[in-house]
Amino acid sequence: xxxxxxxxxxxxxDPALEPYVQTRIFKIIVIGDSNVGKTCLTFRFCGGxxxxxxxxxxxxxxREKTVEIEGERIKVQVWDxxxxxxxxxxxxxxxxxxxxxxxxxxxxxxxxxxxxxxxxIEECNGHAVPPLVPRVLVGNKCDLKDLIQVPSSxxxxxxxxxxxxxxxxxxKDPQESQNVDAIFMCLVCRLKAQRSLPCRDTEGWPAxxxxxxxxxxxxxxxxxxxx
Length: 227
Ligand SMILES: Nc1nc2c(ncn2[C@@H]2O[C@H](COP(=O)(O)OP(=O)(O)OP(=O)(O)O)[C@@H](O)[C@H]2O)c(=O)[nH]1
Ligand SMILES: [Mg+2]
Fold this sequence. Notes:
This protein has one domain (23-191): P-loop containing nucleotide triphosphate hydrolases (Rossmann fold). The chain has helices at residues 38-47, 85-88, 92-96, 111-115, 117-125, 152-161, 177-192, and strands spanning 24-31, 60-69, 72-81, 101-107, 135-140, 165-168. By secondary structure, it is α/β, with parallel strands linked by helices. 26% of the residues lie in helices and 20% in strands.
């Protein structure tokens, strides 16, 4: 026989009475040649460390980080994509579906990874990614100072021509970790500014108007988010 009228609910606030807070999810894909450091950059942003050893990514690896901006909690879902054609071809459609922002990565010590950016941008454009989806350019492995092949001036020109911000950074150098964070936070700030952007789970979200990207004054991207 039940005692009293408690109904068996554990003590504490009634979840049904708590205000419903929906966490927005932003899907950010990281694209570029194999070996440029996409996995290490996403690891650095989501986990705060540089992975000791990485294998080539097969298909995609998902990483997540919840950030708080102006009192709103936002889940950043980072898609660490495969750079090798054979590990990505069946996945490409999924990469671009309902994407909110794109990070193009090259290796500052490998000119071919920079010249190949044209192909990555073409692939992105070919998958009906709305032109207003924010894109940024990231030159990784800046810690290898003596091996740099891609001058900042060239990268900056390319970024300007494609209306992207440029960040030059290193996933490896712990002193650069704030700069790695800035890449993603800058995109999140910009996406947040699109007030009516629905959750990623909503099918067929429409392209939203958004401010034009502004180039950082410093090629390194150091400093505050320009958004
Ligand atoms: N010196 C240095 N090495 C790095 C940096 N980032 C990544 N690496 C190294 O570059 C190699 C490739 O890194 P990954 O992150 O696995 O490259 P990826 O772009 O994910 O490659 P795929 O998964 O094949 O597309 C690894 O040996 C990393 O240790 C960096 O900032 N500096
Ligand atoms: Mg990888």
